[in-house]
Task: structure prediction
Amino acid sequence: MQVANKPSQPGVRVIFHISPSVYITGILSAQRRGLKLDEFLDAAITAAASAEPTDPTHELPWSRHSMELFLLLADTLPESLHGPWRVLYAKVLQEPDLWKAPEASLDEVESGTADDEWRINETALAKAWPRLVSSVFAC
Result:
């Protein structure tokens, strides 16, 4: 049997100075997607770098990118939201239609491995996003 070894190219070592809350959010997001942290960061940085910089709505609160970032933080680390984003989260908390209940099989519940956390429903949030944002931000 012949084994082919792929030549591995060493990566470039980069040091990022990020807050502990951002670090934890990155780890949780990577785990949720089944990726290692470096793979998740590669994908996130590539996506951010490839975004169209000429799009004037890219970074505005009502953009899809803002909604996705809000969803990520609200689901994993809501205490990191400040200012109008915390007000927006409070509005999301008040709307039960924006939340989806945890789903688990009987075996998962009995073994104690069931995910018992409520999550924000991304589809419902996307529909309500313009209304929610306009109620908080002066858009």
